[in-house]
Inverse folding.
């Protein structure tokens, strides 16, 4: 049974960098069938795709966040990470790491999700 | 960006009755080379992450009860729950995964009447 777990600080100051890590267990991490992705959900609101990374290191980012986002991989540790720079209160959200089905070389649906971590941006 | 619009915003259905949730995309999410609709449905219960119910518009994920079904093609899609159960109370989201950025509908909140 695949398990994903987000970790990182729950409080980040405005203008600083939000850093989260997702640890994967119970399944393959370097296979070609999947991407690993980050999504977020502001309190009481809908879902937003942030970006995704393939086992080769190939990344795709939401254009609305591209200037702020870096997603990286640490394969030996079965981890992938999110960095979001220059955060504001609008970046306050529950952040989810997910496994995404790969199709025609792109990430698609998220078939497995972590529990999520609430990150609040506040001074 | 492809805009996903769900209707209604909320829906109350009696136990055992049918629930019909709609999702409309601003552009077709049908990929002609493989004739697949890049449309998914997720269920999110309070305090939990979303759960993938339906992929490719109509393929039920393993373990999802058969009272859930997805239909539609192109720009118009429907999630149907044939017999509402108490455990189906949740917010349901549709998502298109054809064109980046992948986008979600605003959600339909399903409650018991």
């Amino acid at each position: 049974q695949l398990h994903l777990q987000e970790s990182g600080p729950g409080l980040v100051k405005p203008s600083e960098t939000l850093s989260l890590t997702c640890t994967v267990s119970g399944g393959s991490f370097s296979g070609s069938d999947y991407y690993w992705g980050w999504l977020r959900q502001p309190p009481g609101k809908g879902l937003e795709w942030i970006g995704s990374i393939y086992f080769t290191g190939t990344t795709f980012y939401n254009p609305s966040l591209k200037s702020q986002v870096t997603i990286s991989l640490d394969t030996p540790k079965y981890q992938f990470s999110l960095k979001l720079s220059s955060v504001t209160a609008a970046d306050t959200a529950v952040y989810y790491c997910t496994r995404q089905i790969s199709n025609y070389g792109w990430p698609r649906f998220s078939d497995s999700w972590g529990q999520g971590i609430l990150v609040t941006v506040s001074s | 960006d492809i805009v996903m619009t769900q209707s209604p915003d909320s829906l109350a259905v009696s136990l055992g009755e049918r629930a019909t949730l709609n999702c409309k995309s601003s552009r077709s999410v049908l990929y002609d080379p493989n004739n697949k609709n890049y449309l998914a449905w997720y269920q999110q219960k309070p305090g939990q992450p979303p759960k993938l119910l339906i992929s490719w518009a109509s393929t039920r994920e393993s373990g999802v009860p058969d009272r859930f079904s997805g239909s539609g093609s192109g720009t118009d899609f429907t999630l149907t729950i044939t017999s509402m159960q108490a455990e189906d109370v949740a917010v349901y989201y549709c998502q298109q995964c054809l064109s980046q950025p992948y986008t979600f509908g605003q959600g339909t909140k399903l409650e018991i009447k």
